[in-house]
Amino acid sequence: MKKTRKIGLALGGGGARGFAHIGVLKVLERENIKPDIIIGTSVGSIVGGALASGMTVDELEERADAFLESDIYTFSELKAMGDAESGAEQRMSRRIQTYFKTKIRLAQALFRPGILPSKDMEEFINFFVPDIQIEQTVIPFGAVATDLKSGESVLLKKGSLRHSILASASVPGSIPPVDIDGRQLADGAIVCTVPARYAVEQGADVVIAVSIDKDIILSSELQTAVDIYVRAGEIMGFHLEQYDLKNADLIIRPELGSIHWADFSQSRRLVALGEAAALDSLPELRRLAKLVSRGAVMGRIRRSVKGLFVRRPSGIG
């Protein structure tokens, strides 16, 4: 008997750029396209974990707005870093503060495993994700992290949902790695930017992947050693992502420009850009949804027909 086809949703990493995932989800919900499996990397695991735990897309968007207006975010180092990277106009006093905070963070990086305290990221995750086990999610879910000792990617499918997502979202150098079962785990995007292959491994027949990483085309000059180092990492990440995306049936790639991963100030614009990208992909989304639906209908017909020819025990029916 042919099994019912399953839709897998693979949500990629990209920090604040992850608000674009919400825009994509808004279109999927309007089209009544419901994922059977959700796999997330980094911020994709935060958005995916919230959705998998039963939160609606509207609730997710409202929660995002509420978080950015909360004291938890306002007084966090995460916001301070985002302000420094946003490029927004600042008063002279503010620019001086930003300059010295940046220098302090760089100095701290020499003496501790992360520039930002784990507490900031934990509070961010806790704001969106309930304190449950992964096995309790409404939709089957997995978070991808990287084992810093073995160098391999790890799919977390059991244990604390929040703790697993924290491991998946621990950006190297910014957030300290997380210990789970004796493994030192960090951001899944180190080796798996968009986890489409894991969606296939978990039983998805059709995979919708959302990539929110930076554009590969360079729009500015490389002037310093740091510029070149960062650029090299972007190039490696891009080509690694292409390998993972070979497992996707549809790739939605919002045009997010060069928005920094820590710049949360453009959240509503990011949601709108994600929605626009999903709308551009609407014909293909509908085709895939119809393909899955047709497979489910045929499966029910086969089961019904088979039932007509099953010999029933005497005295029944």
Shape: globular
Overall SS class: alpha/beta
Termini separation (Å)? Answer: 24 Å
Task: Please state the average pLDDT score.
Answer: 82
Over the alpha carbons, how many angstroms does the gyration radius reach?
21 Å
The total strand number stands at 8
Helicity range: 40-55%
> Biggest sheet: strands, sense, closure?
8 strands, mixed
Total of helices: 12
Topology as H/E string? Answer: EHEHHHHHHEEHEEHEHEHH
Q: In terms of per-residue confidence, which ranges show pLDDT below 50 for 5 or more consecutive residues?
A: 88-100, 296-317
Percent of residues in beta strands:
5-15%
Describe the fold and architecture.
The chain is α/β, with parallel strands linked by helices and about 325 residues long. Helices cover about 50% and strands about 10% of the residues. It has helices at about 20-30, 45-50, 55-70, 70-75, 75-85, 90-110, 120-130, 160-170, 195-200, 225-245, 265-280, 280-310, and strands at about 5-10, 35-40, 140-145, 155, 180, 185, 205-210, 250. It starts with 6 loop residues before the first strand and ends in a 9-residue tail after the last helix. The model is unreliable at about 90-100 and about 295-315 (pLDDT under 50).
Helix and strand topology:
Elements: E1 7-11, H1 19-30, E2 37-41, H2 43-52, H3 57-68, H4 71-74, H5 77-86, H6 92-108, H7 118-128, E3 141-147, E4 153-156, H8 161-168, E5 178-180, E6 183-187, H9 196-201, E7 206-210, H10 225-245, E8 250-252, H11 267-280, H12 282-308
Parallel strand pairs: 1-2, 1-7, 2-3, 7-8
Antiparallel strand pairs: 3-4, 3-6, 5-6
